[in-house]
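Technical annex B. To support the medicinal chemistry partners, we prepared a structural model of the target in complex with zinc ion, based solely on the information shown next.
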Amino acid sequence: MNEAKAPAGMPETMKALVVRGPGDYRLEEIPVPACGGDDVVIKVMASGICGSDIKCWHGSPYIWGGAGRGKYIQEPVVAGHEFFGKVVAVGPAAAKKHGVALGDYVVPEQIVPCGVCRLCRTGAYNICQQHDIFGFIKDRAEGGFAEYARLPIKSRIHKFPEGFDLDVAAYIEPLGCAIHAVERANVQFADVVAVAGLGPVGLGMLQACVLKNPKEVIAIDLQDKRLGLAREYGATVCLNPAKQDVEAEVDRLTDGYGCDVYIHASGNPKGVLQGLRVIRKGGRYVEYSVFSEDVTADWSMIGDGKEIDIIGGHLSPWDCYASAIRFLHDGRMNAARLITHRLPLDQWLDGFKMVEKGSESIKVLLIP
Ligand SMILES: [Zn+2]
Ligand SMILES: [Zn+2]
């Protein structure tokens, strides 16, 4: 957290949700970030709670290290990476680089790419070696569960078009991720595509798949309510593994071949096994989940069994944010039904518990 002076005309301190350790999140009064010549400071309008926030809160080794993994997070840090806001201070170098001015509404991409590592230099900044994601890296990428946030010079900042519906703006981050996953799947007109796991990202993937116009879009989830939404978004087949034999249904639809593409976002190891079963030989499997446990599967299925292309997806590089903004603005994608709850930042714990439970909410926003 930045100790320097707050920009003129703004309060000295602000409320922020600070990660102090696994299970140790505290609403604190901290200094408003200073705006250097390289910075943009925004008044945060809303910040979505992500599944990864819940995993971090619960001390996942993926974030905190252990179980053979290195530690990722650098705490103490203000959490939150799905946020947008209004520009309230901008340094000269930042104004020039980002083309933003006071009063603009903007959304930063969730990663602040280092710009110099081999991955950044070859265009894969979403998998930047340094990998500063907002809300996880002290000082370099403080997050958006706060009244104000500083966007460093290496941020990738998008301005909203005139008249953009700010009520859905916090969904741009998960939707960008969803679009990236679908682009990784390289969906073709003749494909039968399955999307498994209809959380906020999965329901975005589903909408992105529908826009690609494949032969069938199969939605798979354990909650009928979410399958109902998928149907409204254009899924041609909706399957609930608790009630239906997904493998038999997919076989029936594809003359026994299996689906061409399986995109997985459930975070549940069972979804992986299901994917390996329902995908056709030579099919494309896109994994976007973050799991809280290791997955055990029959690995021979990938080579000897089916010659499957296993494709990973992470974050949302290049045009994904711009596409998300465009589709939300022109109405070809919808988020109004996905943002189910808005809570004041003080009620962050209720919000986290709601997302953890997952049965009554889809996307929960905290409003600082
Ligand atoms: Zn997220
Ligand atoms: Zn990099």
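Notes passed to the chemistry partners:
The pocket of zinc ion (ligand 2) is lined by residues 113-114, 117, 119-120, 128-130 (CB under 6 Å).
The longest strand covers residues 13-21.
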